[in-house]
UniProtKB/TrEMBL annotation:
<dbReference type="Pfam" id="PF00579">
    <property type="entry name" value="tRNA-synt_1b"/>
</dbReference>
<keyword id="KW-0067">ATP-binding</keyword>
<keyword id="KW-0030">Aminoacyl-tRNA synthetase</keyword>
<dbReference type="InterPro" id="IPR024109">
    <property type="entry name" value="Trp-tRNA-ligase_bac-type"/>
</dbReference>
<feature type="short sequence motif" description="'HIGH' region">
    <location>
        <begin position="10"/>
        <end position="18"/>
    </location>
</feature>
<keyword id="KW-0436">Ligase</keyword>
<dbReference type="InterPro" id="IPR002306">
    <property type="entry name" value="Trp-tRNA-ligase"/>
</dbReference>
<feature type="short sequence motif" description="'KMSKS' region">
    <location>
        <begin position="200"/>
        <end position="204"/>
    </location>
</feature>
<feature type="binding site">
    <location>
        <begin position="17"/>
        <end position="18"/>
    </location>
    <ligand>
        <name>ATP</name>
    </ligand>
</feature>
<feature type="binding site">
    <location>
        <position position="142"/>
    </location>
    <ligand>
        <name>L-tryptophan</name>
    </ligand>
</feature>
<feature type="binding site">
    <location>
        <begin position="9"/>
        <end position="11"/>
    </location>
    <ligand>
        <name>ATP</name>
    </ligand>
</feature>
<dbReference type="InterPro" id="IPR014729">
    <property type="entry name" value="Rossmann-like_a/b/a_fold"/>
</dbReference>
<dbReference type="GO" id="GO:0005524">
    <property type="term" value="F:ATP binding"/>
</dbReference>
<keyword id="KW-0547">Nucleotide-binding</keyword>
<dbReference type="InterPro" id="IPR002305">
    <property type="entry name" value="aa-tRNA-synth_Ic"/>
</dbReference>
<dbReference type="InterPro" id="IPR050203">
    <property type="entry name" value="Trp-tRNA_synthetase"/>
</dbReference>
<feature type="binding site">
    <location>
        <begin position="200"/>
        <end position="204"/>
    </location>
    <ligand>
        <name>ATP</name>
    </ligand>
</feature>
Amino acid sequence: KEIVLTGITTSGTPHLGNYVGAIRPAIEASRQEDNDAYFFLADYHALIKCQDPARVQQSRQEIAATWLACGLDPEKVTFYRQSDVPEIAELNWLLTCVTAKGLMNRAHAYKGAVDANTADNQDPDFGITMGLFCYPILMAADILAFNANKVPVGRDQIQHIEMARDIAGRFNHLFGEHFVLPEAVVGEEGSILKGLDGRKMSKSYNNTIPLFETEKKLQKGINKIKTNLLEPGEPKDPNDSTVFDIYKAFATPEQTEQMRKHFAEGIAWGEAKKELFKLVNDQLAEPREKYLELMANPAHVEQVLQAGGEKARVHARKRIADLRSAVGLVNFK
Ligand code: ATP
């Protein structure tokens, strides 16, 4: 049986990119009978980027309600908060002790931060915490705690899955075959949605269109998407348009072809955005209602997560017990 694992960092409000790139495909896949799905709120990860407790807390609630509103069935999948499974933190340490520093030196997130500092004439390590530096190890722990073999990710995360394989391989080499080497499952080309400013839509860039804002705010968000200065009547390039990309992510192939034609005919940006709003809003209206109900009932969501955390721990406890004895942390007899 395949074990599939998906997490979302609880560092802000979930957005259309999270939905299209992670939540929607993960829930669809979990409806197939042939896999065990693990969905988690990556709240330890959130602490790397976000030192605002109120934001982390709010985000945990929003992301939990989002998963449930989008149709996640907590009876069928294992749905939990990372921080409710302390075995993940313990595994993180066991893995840290077999991970070469040189491997972490090559991680994109760390290298990106160093490059940005160098470009600003700062000390290369300015503002970089050990959390950021070692974050691929925590991600490996998330995956290996459950021996997940399929990890759906965006292209930017492929390197981290490769690192998880390296780390698992190293541990297996030293202590015996404990871990299955995970594989990245990468969405189709173009599945990364761009945000309002044209960069990847991301909670950390403040360029998102939130998933379950009010209708009015959704419309406002869509109206803020950056477009070029082409006038109505001038043909527009669908291959270079955030409006088109988001439309495509929600549309049927027929609707997408229709929109492609409208672009060639020079649809006005205002009109294209109106169409986009209609399409997205129709699909989100029902889950939005559910989301609001769940946000108004945190005790219910808490109960679901606690049960999920227990379910996750049953597996993680067993694994960590095996690993402790593999590395020499065994009770005296
Ligand atoms: P952060 O800025 O905190 O990293 P994020 O908004 O970029 O957050 P993550 O929580 O890191 O998102 O990612 C959760 C999931 O959502 C991942 O599977 C990721 O691939 C997917 N995802 C995030 N942003 C996008 C996007 N713009 N388009 C498609 N998928 C995305």
